[in-house]
Every structure is written in C-alpha cells, then in structure tokens.
C-alpha cells in the first residue's frame, strides 16, 4: 500500500509497517510503499520502533508524516537501494509534468521528496525550454532578479 493511501485510511495513528523498496536519496532513506502490520498506541522506545515481525524488519511511524524519511543507518544497508541516474531523470520529468498540470511547487516537493532548493534548481534549469516555468517561479515567490540570475535569462 502506498504511504499516501495508508495516511488517508488511518488518519492520526501510529502504525507498525513493513517497508517495501526503501531507497537512499540525498543522504536519507525514503519509503513510499508499506504493508501495515497493525496500529499501535504510541511510538514506543527506539527498540520498539525498529523491530522484526514474522521475519520482516518493521518500523513504527505516524500518519501525520507526509512521507517516511529515515536516517541512513536505520535499515540494513543491503535492503536500501541507491537512487540512480535514470530515476533522477525520470523524477525531473515527473516534476515538470506535475507543475505543468497545475500542481503547486510545494505539492511536487512533498510528493517527490525534493527540497525547495532542488525544486528551484530544477525550475531554473528548465526555464529556457519551458517558458511557462517563469510564471511558476513567480507564483512560488521568486523575485524577478532571482529568476533572471538563476536562469541566465535577460530582461
């Protein structure tokens, strides 16, 4: 189940979950898909939050968190895959598509686990090829000088 779906089905709850396909990106581990083991009353101790259930590594997280983000050493290294160059290229295209479809910069940032600095860099990089991004940058609160300086465009 996608974490977004789990958040909708179990609002404001602590859940013990089995993470599927955790990946390292920008120095953190992210988990987008989980299997729900059960609901728990609270987060518990660090040992209780990270445990094994039926042979699977489980974690406890709260559904108020938009996404599951862990430190690198929380899960065994052999279970965490590196976010590759192809995935980064796909992510950029997906981000541009979401922006083009009218999603806000904040929505794209949350959905793709991109920092606002990464979003700004992405928009600056593609502004020459995608002129509508200039308006998106303005809507995101960037000044005209920031846009010109970041994109290399001139007045």
Question: How are the elements arranged and paired?
Answer:
Blueprint: H1 3-9, E1 14-20, E2 23-25, E3 28-31, E4 33-40, H2 46-49, E5 50-53, E6 56-62, E7 68-70, E8 81-82, H3 85-100, H4 105-112, H5 116-126, H6 132-139, H7 144-151
Parallel strand pairs: 2-8
Antiparallel strand pairs: 1-4, 1-6, 2-3, 3-7, 5-6
Helix pairs in contact: 3-4, 5-6
What's this, in brief?
The protein has 155 residues and is α+β, with helices and mostly antiparallel strands.
For this entry, give a set of tags.
155 residues, alpha+beta, 2 domains, 4-stranded antiparallel sheet, 4-stranded mixed sheet, 7 helices, 8 strands, 25% strand
Q: How would you describe this protein?
A:
By secondary structure, the chain is an alpha+beta fold. Helix 3 packs antiparallel against helix 4 and helix 5 (116-126) packs antiparallel against helix 6. 40% of the residues lie in helices and 25% in strands. The N and C termini lie far apart (48 Å). It has 2 domains: 3-82, no CATH class; 85-148, no CATH class. The longest helix has 16 residues, at 85-100.
């Amino acid at each position: 189940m996608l974490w977004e779906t789990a958040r909708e089905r179990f609002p404001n709850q602590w859940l013990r979950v089995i993470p599927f396909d955790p990946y390292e990106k920008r120095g953190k581990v992210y988990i987008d898909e989980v299997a729900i083991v059960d609901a728990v009353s609270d987060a518990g101790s660090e040992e209780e939050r990270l445990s094994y259930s039926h042979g699977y590594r489980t974690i406890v997280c709260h559904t108020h968190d938009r996404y599951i983000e862990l430190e690198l050493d929380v899960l065994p290294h052999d279970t965490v895959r590196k976010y590759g160059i192809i995935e980064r290229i796909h992510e950029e295209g997906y981000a541009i598509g979401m922006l083009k479809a009218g999603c806000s910069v904040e929505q794209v940032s949350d959905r793709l686990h991109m920092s606002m600095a990464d979003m700004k860099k992405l928009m600056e990089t593609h502004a020459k090829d995608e002129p509508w991004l200039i308006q998106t940058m303005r809507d995101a609160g960037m000044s005209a000088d920031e846009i010109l300086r970041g994109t290399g465009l001139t007045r």
